């Protein structure tokens, strides 16, 4: 029989593949894994300010960050996701009458939140304000909000001991609060690191207004804080 022809030799270079690709719109980590924060604790900004802070290093760096919003989508307080459908916030952020409005998780910029596919917005179906909350002294200033539907973001890692309350421990405050006296809120999520201050020192500065239910943090000379 005739001898079959030899196979063609391999080309000197691999064939050229037309360029292709895709755009990653949103990467959501596992919602079951609590997210640790460095420094040790994230103290979430409320209706106050983030003074002396800087923008987060990348979108969703604090994936547990919650934004309490008016019905028009503008934030008025912050909070932290503690499970797929529960948010902890300050009691003074929860109106005594009427609804909270809505809660957004995964928001980075206020100006683009409406078109950001990573933002998951929920209504609040239940709220629990601490029964001992005092609006005058802000004692027991904590509340829980149940979302209308679970979200796909990881909750904050909660500490099981009080070691982070030791004076000098660095904690992180984050939010969209004003960055200066009389200034305007930033468009992007901000954060700032501040040290825990001993209760006796804080009570001297605040005329005995610090209770055992509060954590005092900040810099005595000013410049970095969650309030102006």
From TrEMBL:
Check the record and name the Pfam families matching this protein: Trypsin
Q: Which UniProt keywords apply?
A: Disulfide bond
The answer to whether the entry has keyword Disulfide bond is: yes
Q: Which CDD domains match?
A: Tryp_SPc
List, alphabetically, the PROSITE patterns matched: TRYPSIN_DOM (PS50240), TRYPSIN_HIS (PS00134)
Q: Does the keyword Disulfide bond apply?
A: yes
InterPro entries hit by this protein: Peptidase_S1_PA, Peptidase_S1_PA_chymotrypsin, Peptidase_S1A, Trypsin_dom, TRYPSIN_HIS
Annotated Peptidase S1 domain residues: 50-228
Q: Which GO terms describe its biological process?
A: proteolysis
Any idea which GO molecular function terms this record carries?
serine-type endopeptidase activity
For this entry, the protein name equals Peptidase S1 domain-containing protein
Organism, by scientific name, is Calcidiscus leptoporus
């Amino acid at each position: 029989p005739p001898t079959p022809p030899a196979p063609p030799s391999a080309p000197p270079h691999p064939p050229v593949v037309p360029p292709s690709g895709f755009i990653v719109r949103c990467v959501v980590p596992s919602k079951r894994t609590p997210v640790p924060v460095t420094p040790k604790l994230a103290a979430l900004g409320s209706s106050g300010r983030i003074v002396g802070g800087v923008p987060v290093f990348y979108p969703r760096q604090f994936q547990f960050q919650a934004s309490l919003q008016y019905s028009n989508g503008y934030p008025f307080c912050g909070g932290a996701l503690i499970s797929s459908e529960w948010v902890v916030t300050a009691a003074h952020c929860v109106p005594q009458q009427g609804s909270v409005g809505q809660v957004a998780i995964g928001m980075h910029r206020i100006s683009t939140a409406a078109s950001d596919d990573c933002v998951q917005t929920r209504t609040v179906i239940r709220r629990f304000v601490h029964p001992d909350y005092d609006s005058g002294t802000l004692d027991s200033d904590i509340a829980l909000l149940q979302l209308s539907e679970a979200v796909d973001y990881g909750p904050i890692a909660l500490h099981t001991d009080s070691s982070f309350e030791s004076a000098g421990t660095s904690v992180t405050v984050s939010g969209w609060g004003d960055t200066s006296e009389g200034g305007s809120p930033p468009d992007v999520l901000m954060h700032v690191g501040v040290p825990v201050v001993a209760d006796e020192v804080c009570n001297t500065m605040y005329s005995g207004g610090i209770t055992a239910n509060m954590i005092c943090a900040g810099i005595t000379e000013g410049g970095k804080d969650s309030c102006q």
